[in-house]
Write a structure and sequence with these properties.
Elements lengths: L1 E6 L7 H9 L4 E4 L8 E5 L2 E5 L12 E4 L4 E2 L1 H13 L8 E4 L3 E2 L2 H14 L11 H10 L11 H23 L6 H15 L3 E2 L1 H10 L4 E4 L25 H4 L10 E7 L2 E3 L12 H9 L12 E3 L1 E2 H11 L3 E5 L9 E10 L2 E3 L6 H6 L1 E8 L16 H14 L3 E5 L7 E3 L7
Parallel strand pairs: 1-10, 1-11, 2-5, 2-10, 5-7, 6-8, 7-9, 11-15, 14-16, 15-19
Antiparallel strand pairs: 3-4, 12-13, 16-17, 16-18, 19-20
Bound molecules: 6-O-phosphoryl inosine monophosphate and magnesium ion.
The site of 6-O-phosphoryl inosine monophosphate has 24 residues, from helix 4.
């Protein structure tokens, strides 16, 4: 049984908690795209752990974690995360595996990410500034440096030299920055190479052998489907395939080996960074959601934009990922709001759209057509049984399921591992 877990909105849906909970049933937890732009917050007892690059499943004893070929790796950030976990008494030695074909985020990628955002002015993407976009751009331009290249010192030096030849023309001329030093980066990365060596191998081989042996794999998506470079609100997206499709290309596990796709959905919507957001609330309800839901970026600390649940958005996600179930999170954040709304259409140029348009202009102009639901006074925080939910909360949850066309397997009512209503676990238990 192999399960892909994805975000259905613009990231920060609570994937960390759901993946952590499901990891108990998996042998391997696999990251397939993105990099340390992700921020997965997991609360275990009194401890809160935020992971960026390391698969969430490694927080559970004895589980194995894989960073697949589709991920872009900043080795410094990776080693720091390993150290932080060690400090918390969690060792990943012998349990973490890194694909030899994953691409590296180089120091110039981050510089270009930050500088090119500055030149975009109002059209800036609002990236996490981690060098993600430029690293994937180099991968596609076939100038990227892969993990395995570090172990062929001549090749690594040659590639770095060629790349710096171009970068060192751009940095001073376009961005008014000092050129980068070849020797410094070369030595720095040889140091990382040595340290990460024990983790590096052919992860596609490892994973396919694990599946052959009947092991259960959980593929952990970062970001959300509407940040997917192909299916999201382009250009306000990240630079990888955060949808379920990325799980195959990002790991070397063929499409017929995946059994289910679980989409994590927040009971309302948030977005960090720029880009269209038809149901955004700039009034006191938006402020309430941000405060109640602690909607501040786990990676950059930026306040998240908040708004109503958008059924067009999540229905699109259900379709393009052929999702088998939903995990609804943060339902308790809505406690006490007198009237809750769901977007069921977009008004654009006097017409009502019932499917999400591709055009950026239409998305930016879209006025949400809202369906209203009576809220509930009672606290749902920590509820673990569906029967105990207030009647109005049940109505709201059922409306979401119906409007997006997908069964709900889990409802999370707090950030704690155990505080979840579980209807069904995709893995055989
Ligand atoms: P998790 O995994 C929310 C957003 C950034 C920006 C856009 C591009 O925690 O859900 P990038 O640095 O990737 O080039 O930025 O994508 N973004 C996220 N938003 N959650 C994330 O990850 C995100 N990772 C990137 O804010 O709008
Ligand atoms: Mg996050």
């Amino acid at each position: 049984m192999n399960l892909v877990v994805i975000g259905t909105q613009w990231g920060d849906e609570g994937k960390g908690k759901i993946v952590d909970l499901l990891s108990e049933y998996a042998d391997y937890v696999v990251r397939y795209q993105g990099g340390h732009n992700a921020g997965h917050t997991i609360v275990i007892g009194e401890k809160t752990i935020v992971l960026h690059l390391i698969p969430t499943g490694l927080l559970q004893k004895g589980k194995k974690g894989v960073i697949g070929n589709g991920v872009v790796i900043n080795p410094k950030a990776l080693l720091e995360e390993i150290d932080t976990l060690n400090g918390q008494g969690i060792s990943v030695e012998g349990r973490l595996f890194i694909s030899a074909s994953a691409h590296l985020i180089m120091p110039y990628h981050q510089k270009i990410d930050l500088e090119s955002e500055k030149t975009k002015g109002l059209r800036k993407i609002g990236t996490t500034g981690r060098g993600i976009g430029p690293a994937y751009a180099d991968k596609m331009s076939r100038t990227g440096i892969r993990v395995c290249d570090l172990y062929d010192q001549d090749l690594f030096r040659e590639k770095l030299e060629t790349n710096l030849c171009e970068i060192n023309t751009i940095l001073p001329k376009i961005y008014n920055l000092a050129p980068l030093d070849l020797e410094e980066i070369y030595q720095e990365f040889l140091g990382y190479a040595e340290k990460i060596k024990p983790y590096v191998l052919d992860t596609a081989l490892l994973l396919n052998q694990a599946i052959d042996a009947g092991k259960q794999l959980l593929f952990e998506g970062a970001q959300g489907t509407h940040l997917d470079v192909d299916h999201g609100t382009y250009p306000y997206v990240t630079s990888s395939n955060s949808g379920a499709g990325g799980a195959s290309t990002g790991t070397g596990v063929g499409p017929t080996r995946f059994d289910e796709v679980l989409g994590v959905t927040k009971a309302y919507t948030t977005r960090v960074g720029s880009g269209p957001f038809p149901t955004e609330l700039t009034d006191e309800v938006g402020v309430f959601l941000r405060k109640q839901g602690n909607e501040f970026g786990a990676t950059t600390g930026r306040p998240r934009r908040c708004g109503w649940f958008d059924a067009l958005q999540v229905r699109h996600t259900v379709r393009i990922n052929h999702m088998t179930a939903l995990a609804l999170t943060k339902l308790d954040v809505l406690d006490g709001i007198p009237q809750i709304s769901i977007c069921v259409g977009y008004e654009v140029d006097g017409k009502t759209l019932t499917e999400m348009p591709c055009s950026l202009r239409s998305l930016e102009q879209a006025k949400p057509v809202l369906k209203h639901f009576a809220g509930w006074e009672e606290s749902t925080n920590g509820i673990t049984s569906y029967d105990k939910l207030p009647q109005n909360a049940k109505r709201y949850v059922e409306a979401i399921s119906e409007l997006v066309g997908c069964r709900i397997d889990m409802i999370s009512t707090s950030s704690k591992r155990g505080e979840t209503i579980v209807n069904r676990i995709a893995f055989p238990t």
